[in-house]
Amino acid sequence: MRMRNSALLCLGLAATFSLVAIGDALAQKYNSRGTPTIGASRPTGGGGYQGGGGSRGPGWGAAIPGIIMAVPQFVPQDGPPGGGRFIDDGTVDDDQPSRPPRQKSARRGPSGAPPANERRLVPDEIVIELRNTVSPQQIQALQNRHRLTRLESQVSQLSGTTLYRWRIPDRRSVATVVRALEADNIVASAQPNYQFALQQATGQQTAESAGDPAQYELAKLRLPEAHVLARGGGVKIAVIDSGVDEANAEIAGSVAENFNALATPMASHMHGTAIAGLIAAHGKLLGAAPNAKILAVRAFDPAGASAGAEGTTFAILKGLDWAAAEGARVINMSFAGPNDPAVHRALEAAHKKGIVLIAAAGNAGAKSPPLYPAADVNVIAVTATDADDKLFEQSNRGNHIALAAPGAQLLVATPDGYEMSSGTSFSAAEVSGIVGLMLERRGDLSPAQVRGILLSTAKDLGPKGRDPLFGAGLADALAALNAEAIPVAAAPKANGKPRIERVSTGAR
Fold first, then answer.
1. Is 24 a catalytic residue?
2. φ/ψ (deg, to 5) at 26
3. Choosing from 146, 227, 269, 271, which is the catalytic residue?
4. Does the annotation mark 425 as catalytic?
5. Is 146 a catalytic residue?
6. Residue 363 has pLDDT above 90, yes or no
């Protein structure tokens, strides 16, 4: 009898293990949604197997006399216990059809969101770049999707895209909106509408009289001698600045074209007029390239009589694009601000088109980080010196400084007469004029060749060799025009370290 009971017990255990194995096998025959994949019909709540699963799918188990055995239940057909559904790759989808699928961004390079401590931007505006193939319907949908208000647009010849300036109507931060836009697959780039400032020092004094004797920069740069060889005739130099007084006697007839990149009516301003005069004056004053033609771009708002006008990313981009389309050979940028991705791409495109880009180093002093566009790798950065060849105290420093030119206490033209004024803005204008002389003599010079000639012919100042204060030294217009070889040019990298640009040799 005892042996019979033992045999029955063994049979019961064997049956239990068989049922477990059958349950495991059947579980494997169900797909991830609990649907049978074999020919057997799906078991129902009360049929066939104890512990059945009701409407949520089958359960599997066995009851043996003297033994209670439970087998883990299958995943129910309508999903795991917290909602959602299993999908084939083993992940769980929350099954929310209203959520749009993730889209790969079309943006180029790193994020355009501003650094956390950056304040030089319009607080409720963004600049967006879209490919020209994006339809009006897609643009409207993008605007609606991100709750933005369109202000203006500009088709860019330099980038081959369309730029948009949109307002953020609520209190969302610029960084938040930029990151959201970058996740949208039709957005090529998004960034703040950064703010830039003209680089003129404060404390200027009005001069009672004007005349060449006050222009010490002429002798320093050897411009009178250089003008025997060239005066900039036929060379277009764009000035992206505040409004230029084209009726001013010093530059009468020099302004070939005017472009207003702002929504406000055109108005003359002292800074833009002074820059144009330092390049092309031919009255009581003498500019660096008196026969050059000025393409005057008003991108800085002349609010008030001070030189503290500001410009934005969008206005500067419009100005760069217009200047390139009008055939500018040189673009003078006597302003400074943050590192701007969209402006960088436009400068890079202009550089590739053969346009020489000149910018003021900035007047933020020795402790300032590099300012842009001067620190851009495509740009020749110019710092300021005084009548004793000493560095203008407010000048920025850095490895990106290319060379120097007089910028302290210069006599400049304004809409109301003349002023003594200072700043790296004026130094940049003088170098732009010198480049105009060089291009008149050799119109096929590339931007790299121009840089190489300027740096190799500069008069060394400060520590021997190139340094972060004066760059290669004081510009020399006559030596630049007489250079018989086009040397290798040292240009800064994006991180401020020197880079060597190899260019062809031999004058033509």
1. no
2. -65, -35
3. 271
4. yes
5. no
6. yes
